[in-house]
């Protein structure tokens, strides 16, 4: 169960050197209240980043996230150091008027750009701390219908500032057929509204295995995820992280059951470098030019 994360095996040779020096990676979670954002963070952190925890009693409910908060961990693999931060945002959608609920989130992302710019402008630029958000998981309610107006508004506010990765929350509440149809519908909505989600760049001269892995990941977007704090017993006597139902167990770490493993693989292994690059070269650069323009520079 406890595999390692795999970031030390980044597939692209060119990236290895920068990675050896040690680096920072920040992921943010955004979406309506109750969609399992905090649980998924815990699920991401729980396997490879922390030793297994005592399972929570079934009655234990996670307190509501009320402020933007970040959780960090230093992990090391094969001599590569990674400082991983996850930014948890309070859920929205609870209020009659949710019009501006995207604003504090965009402000948080931009203030991280600001702090980076300030460091770049210093005389001594040796120790720049990169707290920029490199990926944003956007949680979609598992309705099986189309995207909500609120989702479209949020994604349109966010997509020019952060690498958006849409995920279908609580995928254990949908059947396999419903997930396939819902994914197609979501991608159509996203295209229709000209929302830019993170797309893996395609490289030439990659080996077959790398290309196959890239294709496999791309085919899963939006990732149908299941989070769980609990270890449960399967019918065949294994102990797994999952959610138990009268008819059986949905296993978080089983690729036949949900896309959690693929999502983690994309974030911390296959595309971590690409996510960092696009954040720096495109998103941050665009923000910086807009800022300079608005200041009349
Ligand atoms: P947040 O408000 O988005 O942070 O949501 P929480 O992580 O606090 O979870 C809200 C509720 O949904 C809790 O009771 C969780 O146990 C439950 N939950 C979280 N993830 C899942 C999931 O993947 N499937 C199901 N069925 N329930 C989940
Ligand atoms: Mg929460």
Automatic annotation (TrEMBL):
Organism of derivation: Suillus subaureus
Domain Septin-type G: start-end pairs: 21-294
Recorded GO MF terms: GTP binding
GO cellular component terms given for this protein: cell cortex; septin cytoskeleton
Keyword GTP-binding: yes
Homology family: Belongs to the TRAFAC class TrmE-Era-EngA-EngB-Septin-like GTPase superfamily. Septin GTPase family.
Keywords: GTP-binding, Nucleotide-binding
Protein name: Septin-domain-containing protein
